[in-house]
Amino acid sequence: MKTRILFVDDEDLALRGLNRLLYPMRQEWEMEFLDSGEKALKRMEIAPFDVVVSDMRMPGMNGAELLNETMKRYPKTVRLILSGYADRDLILKCVGSTHQYLAKPCDADALKMTVRRAAELERSMKSDTLRKLVTRCVILPSVPALYSEMIEALQDPETNIETIGSIIAKDGAMTAKILKLVNSAFFGLGHKIADPNEAVAYLGTDTIKSLALCANAFSEFEHAQLQGFSVESLWEHCLVTARVAKMVAIHEDADRKLADEAYAAGLLHDLGKLVFAANLTEEYQQILNLAREKKISLEAAEREVFGADHADIGGYLLGLWGLPVPVVEAIALHHRPHTVAQKTFSPLTALHVGNTLASAEKLSVSDMPASKLDLRYLQELGIESHVGAWQKEWQSHRLENQ
Question: What percent of the chain has pLDDT over 70?
């Protein structure tokens, strides 16, 4: 079945250009081109689309409004912005409803790759329930205490960027939103940022404040109580994992970019657990109970019930948001790193080791089997003999920080 894609732009020349540019994709995609958001919504009433690509500024209904409405009516649809306008107010309005941004003029290959990637990610979810869940969960919950801390800091006119960066770096949900925004094509960086401090420094406190106070950006974590599941413990585990992952990367003489990506992946690697806990609370309690009863890993229980685990969901979601590919890859494969195609030291390696060492220290969810090192994977990389050195260095770090 062909992927159905709807392109929306009020400029006739732009639509004609897209039609010509993407003509070779007709064998793979079923494409339609409309000149207004109103027409797009009417067309979707007849037959929903897999992907909607919209311009930002249009008369009547702009791109942000169109994608917000699309999200409400058709949560399974992947939503992309393709625009030549870098209006930050409009960008902030569609942060919650837009999976990825592309800037005009867009290279044909880049456009094809992005749309194809989005379509493939959409098809990759076997469960219709999970696919619908992930594309709807564009607002990730944040830990209330950290959220309050950030808001209080932002309201203080003397707060500096370093302080905001340090607060954001504590929380994966905030990190995900900030990195999603700064890595969008509208900011024209030309490279991906994985360090939340660098992201805050680039965006500035005014933009961060607007983003933080926007109802679609951050919300306090609210869900039914789950026995044996603690949000605070989960974030503590993510923070420890991030620190260990970065330490491992530095130990292996990785460059700063890889080390930063390993840290970001560590912060975000268990976001899938929050997606499950916040949106499928009753089912997730059953999964927690199943893992304890069978004495199996949480991810094994998730796959048994949902057909996918928290790593799949986290990687899928963050991949749609356009985070750096090495970060997404690390998150999606951190429980099965041997399945990665390219066998080289990467953020995936650092995250896998970091998660294993952090799990041995304190589990993110109580009474679950600790994660184990994939020795076959480490042997393929020729670094299985480094495990003892990593453990020793981490213990040294812990003692120094006590």
Answer: 78
